[in-house]
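stage 2 :: seqdesign
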């Protein structure tokens, strides 16, 4: 696929790097020639210096035969204008835009074909908010991703000694849980002087303390599943009440507002270096949010603010080093769980397995939305895992036994790559545009309830037969296996 990316900032660079690994033809447009030369030296891509909203610059970048435009500069105005130019002058089929304005996201008519010519809009800050929000809801989890219109969730959890299923084999996990809609799809184990590595996830594999376990579960049962891996017998459930945020930027402000708006149970503190920004935050946030001027790497400040009582410490400044150091300090002083926002992949890799519980990459939090548009076949969702190495995908089985290698066949007979697991099959989901809405909220709600009653979440066995329109959720320990999986579910003119 030929892809044109506008903007060579952090988001643009991360998107380009990920899409290049999928063997796409990438061209990046930016006004910073030095930045582009650096990207050309490190990656196999083409750089064009200029303003992305200029028809001449877009023509030079090859917009005439481009399959996809991703406008991800830091300015919403530039991104939206570029999408319209791409639609009207170059007829680029897929036009994806990054937007930062909450107001724009709330007006769907603007972010459409008839508005600014947008086929899909994504917001990195919003993705980060969703990511952190799920960690607040599920304190035991390291990561939570949703599939099948929210019916199924994939979570990673650190196994703790004394938890009900730790020490059991993978085959015995389901028998020892109060429900059966759960499947262990990946186990990563830490070895001496080595990074975590995947161990064969077979029925005989035992869950050991310290393992990072990837588990698929019915969304409603996810809390109980995580507790079975991470909570010792008789131990009370973790509840996040006290949250401290280092960094009062756009994401920090939105996080504090969302937590206090959702529930009064949260006690939120924000630490910000800039005095002017502190004044702004204090004027825009609810009065029960405490805004502190200071440095989150200051040990005296952290002790005075009782960081040892904090349930979740979140470092989301623009500086990776500050985020890492403040999280390490908070953990040393007694914070229950710490999360660091780390843009540099090298830093994120170095922090894995340290005292930092969660190292979050903004790029990895948003890439899934883009990858779903790049992939072949009817891919509904893509989530990047393990810092971009592994992946979980939701793909819809289309066709019939004559046109598909998957439909009408047993799971055990599918020629899946080694270590790739079909975790769940969701049957009976309506098509995204199949809901019948007539403007009545009550009617819409009743329709949703009827749809949910038809949905069946299946933990497949080797004898389960895949049917047409099934939503199949797979775990891939290496993203290089994606093309083999896509080929298996691709519909042909005839299979035989």
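stage 2 :: out
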């Amino acid at each position: 696929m030929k892809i044109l990316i506008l903007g060579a900032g952090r988001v643009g660079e991360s998107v380009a790097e990920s899409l290049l690994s999928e063997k796409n033809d990438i061209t990046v447009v930016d006004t910073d020639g030095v930045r582009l030369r650096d990207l050309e030296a490190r990656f196999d891509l083409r750089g064009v210096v200029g303003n992305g909203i200029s028809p001449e610059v877009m023509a030079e970048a090859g917009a005439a035969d481009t399959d996809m435009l991703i406008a991800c500069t830091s300015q919403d105005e530039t991104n939206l204008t570029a999408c319209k130019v791409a639609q009207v002058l170059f007829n680029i089929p897929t036009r994806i835009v990054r937007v930062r304005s909450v107001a724009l996201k709330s007006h769907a008519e603007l972010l459409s074909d008839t508005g600014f010519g947008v086929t899909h809009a994504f917001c990195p800050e919003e993705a980060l908010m969703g990511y952190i929000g799920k960690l607040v809801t599920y304190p035991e989890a390291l990561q939570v991703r949703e599939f099948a219109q929210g019916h199924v969730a994939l979570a990673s959890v650190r196994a703790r000694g004394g938890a009900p299923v730790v020490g059991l084999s993978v085959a015995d996990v389901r028998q020892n849980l109060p429900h059966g809609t759960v499947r262990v799809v990946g186990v990563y184990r830490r070895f001496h002087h080595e990074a975590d590595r995947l161990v064969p996830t077979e029925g005989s594999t035992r869950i050991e303390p310290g393992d990072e376990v990837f588990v698929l579960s019915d969304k409603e049962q996810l809390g109980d599943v995580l507790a079975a891996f991470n909570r010792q017998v008789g131990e009370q459930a973790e509840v996040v009440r006290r949250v401290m945020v280092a960094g009062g930027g756009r994401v920090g402000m939105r996080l504090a507002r969302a937590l206090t708006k959702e529930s009064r149970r949260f006690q939120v503190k924000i630490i910000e270096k800039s005095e002017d920004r502190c004044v702004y935050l204090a004027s825009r946030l609810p009065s029960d949010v405490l805004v502190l001027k200071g440095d989150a790497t200051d040990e005296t400040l952290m002790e005075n603010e009782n960081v040892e009582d904090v349930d979740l410490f979140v470092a989301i400044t623009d500086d990776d080093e500050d985020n890492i150091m403040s999280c390490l300090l908070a953990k040393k002083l007694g914070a229950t769980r710490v999360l660091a926002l780390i843009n540099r992949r090298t830093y994120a890799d170095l922090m894995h397995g340290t005292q930092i519980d969660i190292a979050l990459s903004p790029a990895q939090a948003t890439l899934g939305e883009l990858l779903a548009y790049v992939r072949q076949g009817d891919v509904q969702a893509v989530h990047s895992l393990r810092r971009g190495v592994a992946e979980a995908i939701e793909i819809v089985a289309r066709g019939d036994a004559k046109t598909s290698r998957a439909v009408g066949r047993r799971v055990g007979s599918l020629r899946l790559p080694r270590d790739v697991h079909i975790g769940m099959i969701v049957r009976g989901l309506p098509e995204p545009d199949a809901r019948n809405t007539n403007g009545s909220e009550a009617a819409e709600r009743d329709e949703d309830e009827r749809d949910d009653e038809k949905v069946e979440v299946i933990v497949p066995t080797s004898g389960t037969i895949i049917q047409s329109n099934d939503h199949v959720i797979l775990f891939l320990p290496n993203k290089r296996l994606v093309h083999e999986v896509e080929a298996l579910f691709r519909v042909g003119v005839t299979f035989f």
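stage 3 :: structure notes
- Residues 124-137 form the longest helix (14 residues).
- The two ends are 28 Å apart (CA to CA).
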